[in-house]
């Protein structure tokens, strides 16, 4: 499976929801803006899918159009940070109080105000100002009309006209409001957003009044309110001006001071908060207020009475707290807490310090994009943990994005990316855990030594591939190896006359070659294409040529069977040239030898040519590193357990090494070469049989030596988990048993199969053949294939993926049959590959006819064996489950592999022949024509009945 690339590697394509957030505009607005600008939108984008991605040009166009909003947002953020810092400072002076108020308050007014035209208001004040001062320009431009017109003209005028007088009278009650107004103004400005701010700011600076009236104007009550604001505005002005008189700290004067200060503060804040966007800020501020506001006792109550007049509850509450707090602080100060002051100073210093650290950390996080390395299908809980955020936050973000996720729900790649984005994480998926291994480590030039080439022989059927391999192998043995005949272990190494070594992959044909390549295991360095001289370049010859080209592996042509009288090598060379293979005899570069695999003619010089070609490749490896190899064959050996032939590709594999291979890990218990001699080490390009695997790996799996076994185990279990999760997610509700019916009734499109077999070769062959059965309606998928008995985990896998289990020359281990029955998993067992293929084909075509049905009657364990003269071997047995019948057929299963199938000759209890023996009883069994029964063997007895087959639904 191709490793998923990090999104950051791709050209930056921003998601719609991100752009929306970034630019502070609705997704709908973005979509329509893009349409207006003539962009072609894909379906997702056109539908406003928040995950749809924008091309960089679209993004640029949006930035151009809406950067103001984005700027505003950025400024707001900046300001928020400032405010947070200020709050943290929480100076004892009255100043902080207003700040605190300013924050919560704008929020409250902000919302209601936001909807109406916030902009018009600034306009309103602008008018009054016009008279007194310059700055009317902005107003006319923006000046919408509604509120502005109704409220603005008169009140504004009044406000200005009446200033001082009104104030003198109105002062007491209004004192409470100034803040409110100020805030109102703030919010108004906030809404005005963009341009007006600058203006507003200037206005504020010069004349505080205008801004306030505006604020009020915005608010519902026009007349009265306007009047008040003006008054307040003046007040503020006055206070500011007059207040030079100190005493701020004094208890008695506290109130007056406080208010004066509050007012000033608020005005100062106005332009900043003017940038604020309503809701978020509100929440934040409320929280802030809650946090900053000390548990001041009767704060609320204390403050309220003064303010009852004006109806802004939110404000009152918060400001009351602050007021109360200030009062307390000031009183404390006044009562002469010198030590307190120092303590406060210290506290402030500490706070500053903490704030600085926090800021630095934030900055750091912002600067370096956070990358999350996770596997697909992790649960929401795990994702939250990986991001170090509370899981409910992740869930609620999910809701916000329209995703209903629960804590244990497994998430697909898109959901993970989306959620992680929300927390500013980039996601890197670990599809292949191998990525985590340090395989990429380059070998130093000086560590590299040359290694033998690894060669695969390919060609058309019957052109002599096997004969050539056999000849080479035998010739090699004859050449003086004392180890005896080489065994078929999937690969072997020979030594040429020049004392050079060549490793051959012992599986002729391109199936094995492509099967490995399909798994990303490029083992072969060189291909020998065999063509029979008495035949022609055939389809599979062309396939072989194409395979070697696709793999970018050089080829050497062997024109075989030249001993045959009908041999016509020239014709073959000409035909090869037609395929673009120019052999050297034809002036081309491809080396070619005319051979006879049967009697060995020119095989030596063929090997020389192979060696020459290999020399050009300058193949090297570093024997001084941990071994890395590829499994070329794996099988279940009766005595040794799982045996895997590993072709070491780099480094050295040693006995005792800890390794991970496929989904399993372990230690190399022992190693044997192709002559079955025990070896302690295996260097580059050496094929070796590895013992000590807990389960059979797949052909093409990489075996990687790890420093510690624990590490290897972790990787294996991660892989298992990944496979499990992926399988769960790829669940298809299809079973072979229902296949025909489902094809007809439900039009199902997938048939999942778990293939188990006795040797890797047959498993591969069967799997490949089954895969090829896919037709237009139904695709065959091999969800798992492996060597060995059918285990519970196979059944569980089949359950998870609704698969059928096909066993070739293997049987379910004890108890598994019962589980399969309970789970309604169909296990089909075969001894002939062709039968399996035919059955599946029939099932796929919905043609399976009723036939014989085999029913297993018992499982029997051989506990002792006795040799009796005439009778042969008697198996002293125990019936584990079921009931053995005298006429039952039987299979002998050893280590999960069927070694014999036949019939029961005699069935006895004590010395009597019996018709049947039930579970829990002992009996003596002899098998017709078979005596090689061993203790530990299992008999599986069965009867064959003429019944409709399961598949013939
Ligand atoms: N006369 C002659 N016969 C050969 C030679 N090489 C192979 N044969 C015969 O050709 C037949 C097929 O040879 P194999 O080696 O089985 O061919 P293959 O390409 O391995 O065939 P598949 O495994 O079916 O793909 C056998 O009967 C061989 O004895 C040769 O050099 N000369």
TrEMBL record:
Biased composition, class Low complexity, residue ranges: 145-167, 176-190, 198-230
PROSITE patterns linked: G_TR_2 (PS51722), IF2 (PS01176)
Molecular-function GO terms, alphabetical: GTP binding; GTPase activity; translation initiation factor activity
UniProt-annotated stretches for the region Disordered: 71-354
Biased composition (Basic residues): 306-316, 340-349
Binding site for GTP: 459-466, 506-510, 560-563
Compositional bias annotation for Basic and acidic residues: 71-81
Coiled coil: none
Keywords: Cytoplasm, GTP-binding, Initiation factor, Nucleotide-binding, Protein biosynthesis
Compartmental location: Cytoplasm
The protein's name: Translation initiation factor IF-2
């Amino acid at each position: 499976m191709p490793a998923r690339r990090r999104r950051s590697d791709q050209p930056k394509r921003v998601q719609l929801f991100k752009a929306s957030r970034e630019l502070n505009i609705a997704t709908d607005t973005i979509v329509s803006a893009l349409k207006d600008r003539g962009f072609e939108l894909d379906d997702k984008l056109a539908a406003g899918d928040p995950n749809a991605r924008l091309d960089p040009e679209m993004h640029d166009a949006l930035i151009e159009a809406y950067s103001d909003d984005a700027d505003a947002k950025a400024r707001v953020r900046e300001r928020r940070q400032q405010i947070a810092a200020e709050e943290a400072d929480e100076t004892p002076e009255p100043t902080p109080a207003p700040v605190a108020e300013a924050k919560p308050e704008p929020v409250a007014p902000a919302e209601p105000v936001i909807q109406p035209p916030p902009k018009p208001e600034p306009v309103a004040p602008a008018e009054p100002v016009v008279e007194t001062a310059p700055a009317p320009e902005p107003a006319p431009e923006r000046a919408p009309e509604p509120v502005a017109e109704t409220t603005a003209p008169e009140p504004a005028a009044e406000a200005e006209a009446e200033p001082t007088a009104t104030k003198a009278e109105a002062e007491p009650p209004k004192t409470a409001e100034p803040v409110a107004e100020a805030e109102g103004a703030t919010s108004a400005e906030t809404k005005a957003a963009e341009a007006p701010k600058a203006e507003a700011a200037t206005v504020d600076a010069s004349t505080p009044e205008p801004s306030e009236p505006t604020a009020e104007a915005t608010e519902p009550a026009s007349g009265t309110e306007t009047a008040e604001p003006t008054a307040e505005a003046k007040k503020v002005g006055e206070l500011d001006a007059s207040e030079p008189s100190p005493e701020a700290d004094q208890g008695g004067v506290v109130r007056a001071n406080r208010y004066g200060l509050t007012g000033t503060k608020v005005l100062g804040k106005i332009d900043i908060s003017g940038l604020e966007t309503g809701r978020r800020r509100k929440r934040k501020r409320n929280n802030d207020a809650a946090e900053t506001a000390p548990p001041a006792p009767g704060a609320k109550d204390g403050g309220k009475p003064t303010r009852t007049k004006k109806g802004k509850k939110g404000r009152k509450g918060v400001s009351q707290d602050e007021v109360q707090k200030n009062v307390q602080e000031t009183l404390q100060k006044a009562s002469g807490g010198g030590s307190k002051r120092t303590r406060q100073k210290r506290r402030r210093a500490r706070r500053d310090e903490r704030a600085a650290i926090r800021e630095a950390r934030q900055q750091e996080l912002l600067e370096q994009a956070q990358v999350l390395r996770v596997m697909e299908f992790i649960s929401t809980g795990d994702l939250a943990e990986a991001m170090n955020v509370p899981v409910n936050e992740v869930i609620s973000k999910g809701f916000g994005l329209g995703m209903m996720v629960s804590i244990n729900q497994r998430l697909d790649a898109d959901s993970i990316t989306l959620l992680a984005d929300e927390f500013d994480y980039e996601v890197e998926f670990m599809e292949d855990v191998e990525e985590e291994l340090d395989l990429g480590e380059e070998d130093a030039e000086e560590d590299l030594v040359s290694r033998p080439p690894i060669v695969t022989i390919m060609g058309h059927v019957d052109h002599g591939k096997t004969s050539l391999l056999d000849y080479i192998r035998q010739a090699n043995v004859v050449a003086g190896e004392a180890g005896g005949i080489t065994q078929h272990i999937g690969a072997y190494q020979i030594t040429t006359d020049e004392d050079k070594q060549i490793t051959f992959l012992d599986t002729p044909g391109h199936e094995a070659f492509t099967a490995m390549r399909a798994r990303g295991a490029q083992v072969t360095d060189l291909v020998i294409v065999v063509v029979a001289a008495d035949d022609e370049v055939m389809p599979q010859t062309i396939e072989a040529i194409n395979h070697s080209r696709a793999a970018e592996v050089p080829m050497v042509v062997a024109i075989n069977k030249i001993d045959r009288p009908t041999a016509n090598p020239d014709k073959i060379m000409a035909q090869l040239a037609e395929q673009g293979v120019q052999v050297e005899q034809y002036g081309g570069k491809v080396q070619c030898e005319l051979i006879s695999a049967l009697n060995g003619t020119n095989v030596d010089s063929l090997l020389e040519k192979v060696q020459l070609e290999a020399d050009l490749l300058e193949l090297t490896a570093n024997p001084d590193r941990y071994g890395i190899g590829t499994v070329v064959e794996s099988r279940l050996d009766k005595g040794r357990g799982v045996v895997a032939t590993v072709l070491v590709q780099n480094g050295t594999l040693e006995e005792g090494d800890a390794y991970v291979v496929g989904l399993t890990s372990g230690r190399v218990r022992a190693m044997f070469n192709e002559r079955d001699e025990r070896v302690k080490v295996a260097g580059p390009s050496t094929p070796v049989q590895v013992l000590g695997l807990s389960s059979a790996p797949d052909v093409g799996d990489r075996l990687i030596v790890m420093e510690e076994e624990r590490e290897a185990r972790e990787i294996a279990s991660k892989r298992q988990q990944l496979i499990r999760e992926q399988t769960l997610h790829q669940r298809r509700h299809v079973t072979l048993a229902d296949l025909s019916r489902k094809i007809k009734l439900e039009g199902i499109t997938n048939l999942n199969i778990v293939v188990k077999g006795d040797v890797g070769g047959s498993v591969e062959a069967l799997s490949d053949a089954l895969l090829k059965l896919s037709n237009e309606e139904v695709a065959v998928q091999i969800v798992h294939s492996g060597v060995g008995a059918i285990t519970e985990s196979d059944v569980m896998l089949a359950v998870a993926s609704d698969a059928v289990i096909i066993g070739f020359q293997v049987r379910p281990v004890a108890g598994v049959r019962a589980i399969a029955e309970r789970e309604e998993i169909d296990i089909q067992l075969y001894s002939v590959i062709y039968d399996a293929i035919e059955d599946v084909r029939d099932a796929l075509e919905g043609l399976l006819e009723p036939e014989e049905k085999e029913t297993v009657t018992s499982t029997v364990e051989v506990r002792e064996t006795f040799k009796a003269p005439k009778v042969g071997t008697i198996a002293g047995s125990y019936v584990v489950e079921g009931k053995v019948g005298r006429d039952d057929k039987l299979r002998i299963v050893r280590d999960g592999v069927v070694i014999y199938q036949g019939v029961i000759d005699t069935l006895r209890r004590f010395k009597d022949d019996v018709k049947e023996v039930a579970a829990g009883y002992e009996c003596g069994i002899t098998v017709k024509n078979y005596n090689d029964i061993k203790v530990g063997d299992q008999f599986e007895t069965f009867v064959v009945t003429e019944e409709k087959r399961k598949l013939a639904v």
